[in-house]
Design goal:
The structure holds two protein chains of two kinds.
Chain A (H helix, E strand, L loop, with lengths): L3 E7 L8 E4 L5 E5 L5 H13 L30 E7 L6 E5 L5 E3 L4 H10 L5 E3 H9 L2 H11 L3 H24 L1 H16 L6 H12 L11 H11 L5 H43 L1 H21 L17 H14 L1 H31 L11 H21 L10 H4 L3 H20 L5 H69 L5 E11 L2 E11 L2 E3 L8 H19 L5 E5 L7 H14 L4 E6 L2 H12 L4 E8 L3 E4 L3 H13 L6 H19 L17 H15 L1 H7 L1 H5 L19 H16 L2 E2 L4 E2 L1 E6 L4 E3 L6 E3 L3
Parallel strand pairs in A: 3-12, 3-13, 7-11, 11-12
Antiparallel strand pairs in A: 1-2, 1-4, 4-5, 5-6, 8-9, 9-10, 13-14, 15-16, 17-18, 18-19
Helix pairs in contact in A: 3-4, 3-17, 4-5, 5-12, 5-16, 6-9, 6-16, 7-16, 8-16, 9-12, 9-15, 10-11, 12-13, 16-17, 18-19, 20-21, 21-22, 21-25
Chain B lengths: L7 H11 L8 H12 L5 H16 L11
The chains are: A alpha+beta, B mainly alpha.
């Protein structure tokens, strides 16, 4: 099983400059404040293995599996962004890059690597804070979904939903198309022309033979080809205009007849929609609450998508734990769930109405493009057809109204079936009249009737075929869904049965001496179908469910983590590592420490990448994990480089030396400033130079001019000798110390010569405060009370000092 | 179905490997679903488009054969 040697990221998400984590197969604990880019590591990692970033794969950010938001926005267009992972097994090493056109490349194209990546789809490599939060706040039915997300079954749920949704969609389409009505319209045409129905070829041929008998053609129709032969034989070009007229009226009659057969459906659909719409609208409180519900749901979405990262309410700006906020929102959303269901019913009724009307509108729109409608003779008929279309459109417009609007009264908008029936009947009469207008011409009459009935029969078969295809598709999806949910339920049950001991073990390790035990999941079923789960456990030897009543947020967080860790044990066959991104945010102090112990004892064989934004947690468990061989890192974020690792003074000094050697001025001035700040902070500390107090971490962030002033002021009082030697005003006047922390607002364009000179001066300044013999700074800790001198550890460096 | 521990991916892979054995299903629909899953395109819109294509293919008028039969 593979462990990671190094992770190198460049130009992905918040990482602008190359970020390297040398893990050498060891676990790592990384601290980084919110916004320092810890999640950039997780996102890059997710992209490397799964080729997508789930939380970025939505419509707002981009549909291309999060790729649109993958590249750091400051990375030059010509530069590829990448993540490079090396493993203990070299054959798996790979660099995955994405260029400016969002094309991606993998440097390793071997079968071994492809197999490794494919296997990761079965493994659990990443758990994020948001996955746990969703699990904690989810209601009973959503808990199943969120649990599946934690143990890697989210895709299973997606497939299940897709099968169900498509089966239901096809069923709706069949209903709204009203195929029986469409078939009936064609059979009416056949009946009118042939004098009998034709559901099969034989029935059609039988009717056709009877029809052509008076013509004594000496042809017996045995196929549809024979019908064409007869039609050709009796066709008369002189009659084409009349035939066009008949076809035109037949088309209109068929479309109107379709609407006639659908009128009851339209009226009933509108009535259902109207009643549900007004029932909801009747209570103004409901309408208000629905508007509130939208706000609450949007708020929940904002919080779960980490748009707001810190613990405060984005509306009132008051401090509040994010989890508490989400739980409150969820409770209020659950309270309004019944209302939501009522609203969903209205929306569904509205869609049913639209689906019932739309095919009729399309048919009418098709009719209105007929050439004959352009002639004056058909003006009145055209207006009648347009009226029908307007009436259909009125229904459609009503179906799209918001709850704040008023619907037209049912009776007022109702389709008058009688009028449609009269129109159909009128059209049938007209067709008959036209057909009979050449009564003496038996050929023409026969031709028209045979032509219309053959055409209607072909259309009938087409409609029936379409109906059958959809019915088969619907049945297929329903059967597949049935099969799939059995598999899903079985797999979940096997996982829970086989790993309930592990889950229990992990949970009780984090919660010793608590009387919660025998934790298991209990399926919730509706109509014999798994619709959710609840968690059952024994509390003081009594079985309890659901958990919310007795378990705190921390406990449910523990449960979520236990499920994830059990799934790591169950499914990670190739990868001996996993990432935990901020997963302890809902933990109280005691749980945090025991969680670290759980990882170091029960997962010592795994490589853990543990990211946290909680300094307290980092400090609490640092010694525990370090004693077990873990690496510790701090992340920082800067405007220049994006996410990076907080470097020690020695690192910066080496970097400065290297840049001077390479004559590389890029960021050199900034490095010198940062170095000087770090050293001067130490100098100020050792000689007790006072700076203004600031709260918390800001106290750590002192800029060079402030520190130099403080030291200068101290020297003025305590040591004239050192003050003159150090010559702080010279350093303070240097360009890079005039700007603020980032030096971005500093217009000074440094040449390498300038920077070399400045570096020499900074080194010279520091040389006055630091002794390289004993590696110690001048400090009041080493104050010589006899000689009244401040000195270094060995005494080689000392100056007069007035206390 | 055996009593082996299965990951989410195992469940889905097995389902698609054995999907043709589900009785009473339409073969062309099932084959299309297998194809979409294999191409990593098993999404709502792709399924809808594929089903529409199958429907259009099925209702497309067939040429009348020489003997006049359809």
């Amino acid at each position: 099983m593979a462990k990671i040697k190094t992770i190198k990221i460049n130009g992905l998400r918040g990482v602008r400059e190359p970020l390297t984590l040398d893990l050498n197969k060891k676990s790592i604990l990384v601290y980084g404040d919110n916004g320092t880019g810890k999640s950039s590591v997780t996102d890059s990692f997710e992209w490397f293995f799964y080729d997508k970033i789930e939380h970025l794969s939505n419509e707002e950010i981009g549909r291309r599996k999060g790729r649109d938001a993958l590249r750091n926005i400051f990375i030059p267009e010509t530069e590829d962004s990448f993540i490079e992972l090396t493993f203990d097994e070299n054959k798996l090493d790979s660099k995955k890059s994405i260029d400016n056109s969002l094309k991606t490349f993998n440097s390793n194209e071997t079968d071994d690597f492809k197999k490794f990546i494919a296997s990761s789809f079965s493994e659990r490599l990443i758990l994020r804070y948001r996955d746990l939060v969703q699990f904690i706040i989810a209601g009973k039915t959503d808990k199943l979904k969120e649990l599946q997300n934690i143990i890697g079954f989210s895709e299973v749920q997606n497939i299940r939903d897709l099968l169900k949704r498509n089966g239901a969609r096809i069923a709706r389409n069949i209903k709204s198309a009203n195929y029986d009505n469409l078939k009936n319209v064609q059979q009416c045409t056949i009946l009118e022309n042939l004098g009998q129905n034709a559901y099969t070829d034989e029935q059609l041929f039988d009717g056709a033979n009877k029809l052509i008998k008076p013509l004594k053609l000496e042809i017996e129709i045995k196929s549809r080809q024979d019908i064409n032969t007869v039609l050709k034989k009796i066709e008369s070009k002189e009659d084409s205009e009349l035939l066009n007229q008949i076809n035109f009226y037949t088309k209109i009659k068929e479309s109107v007849a379709q609407i006639e057969g659908n009128v009851d459906n339209i009226n009933n659909s509108y009535s259902t929609f109207y009643d549900s719409f007004n029932a909801l609208k009747k209570d103004p409180e409901k309408v208000k609450n629905l508007q509130l519900l939208s706000l609450l749901q949007e708020g929940k979405s904002v919080l779960t998508k980490d748009v707001v990262e810190d613990d405060y309410c984005p509306l009132c700006q008051q401090e509040k734990s994010k989890i508490d906020l989400l739980q409150d929102l969820n409770l209020r959303i659950e309270e309004l769930e019944l209302l939501e269901k009522e609203k969903e019913k209205v929306v569904s009724n509205s869609k049913d109405l639209q689906n019932t009307i739309k095919p009729n509108i399309s048919a009418i729109e098709g009719l209105l493009t007929e050439k004959l409608f352009g002639k004056e003779d058909y003006k009145e008929l055209k207006e009648t057809v347009e009226e029908i279309k307007n009436s259909l459109n009125n229904h459609l417009d009503e179906s799209k109204k918001e709850l704040t609007e008023k619907l037209s009264d049912k009776e007022k908008i109702k389709f008058a079936k009688k009028e449609i029936e009269e129109l159909t009947s009128e059209l049938v009469k007209t067709i008959k009249k036209l057909t009979e207008s050449k009564e003496a011409n038996l050929k023409f009459k026969t031709y028209t009737k045979l032509f219309q009935s053959a055409k209607a029969y072909v259309e009938y078969l087409k409609i029936e075929k379409e109906q059958n295809v959809l019915a088969n598709q619907q049945a297929t999806f329903e059967l597949l869904y049935e099969d799939f949910i059995k598999r899903q339920e079985e797999a979940l049950n096997v996982f829970l049965e086989m790993f309930s001991n592990d889950i229990n073990d992990f949970y009780t390790t984090m919660n010793p001496n608590e009387k919660v035990e025998d934790i298991k999941l209990v399926p919730l079923k509706k109509n014999n179908e798994l619709v959710g789960i609840t968690i059952e456990y024994s509390f003081f030897n009594e079985t309890h469910t659901p958990p919310i009543a007795y378990l705190s947020e921390s406990h449910i967080n523990c449960l979520g983590l236990s499920f994830f860790l059990a799934s790591v044990r169950a499914f990670n066959k190739e990868s001996k590592f996993f990432v935990l991104d901020d997963v302890i945010s809902s933990f109280d102090r005691s749980h945090r420490y025991r969680f670290a112990q759980l990882l170091t004892t029960k997962f010592s064989d795994f490589q853990v990448i543990l990211l946290t934004h909680e300094k307290e947690f980092f400090e609490l468990v640092s010694s525990e994990v370090k004693s077990k061989g873990w690496i510790l890192n701090n992340f920082k974020w800067t405007k220049d480089n994006g996410t990076g690792i907080e470097r020690g003074i020695a690192d910066i000094k080496d970097r400065i030396k290297k840049k001077i050697e390479d004559k590389n001025t890029d960021g050199l001035g900034n490095d010198i400033r940062v170095y000087a700040e770090r050293v001067m902070k130490r100098v100020a500390l050792e000689m007790e130079a006072k700076v203004a107090y600031r709260n918390n971490d800001i106290n750590e962030k002192r800029m060079a001019p402030e520190l130099l002033d403080a030291v200068q002021s101290k020297l003025t009082k305590a040591s004239k000798e050192l003050k003159e030697k150090a010559n702080i005003p010279k350093i303070k006047g240097m360009p890079m110390f005039i700007g603020n922390t980032t030096s971005h607002d500093n217009s000074f364009q440094e040449s390498i010569e300038d920077l070399e000179a400045i570096w020499e001066d900074v080194k010279g300044l520091i040389h006055n405060f630091y002794c390289s013999d004993c590696d110690k700074f001048l400090s009041l800790k080493f104050y010589d009370n006899v000689e009244n001198k401040i000195r270094c550890g060995c005494g080689n460096l000392k100056f007069d000092w007035k206390k | 179905m055996d009593n082996q521990i299965k990951s989410g991916k195992d469940v889905i892979d097995e389902f698609f490997a054995e999907i043709l054995n589900v009785e009473g299903t339409d073969e062309s629909t099932v084959n299309k679903l297998i194809e979409l899953y294999g191409d990593n395109k098993f999404t709502d819109s792709n399924i809808q488009n594929a089903l529409e294509e199958l429907k259009q293919e099925a209702i497309k008028p067939k040429k009348i054969k020489e003997d006049g039969k359809n």
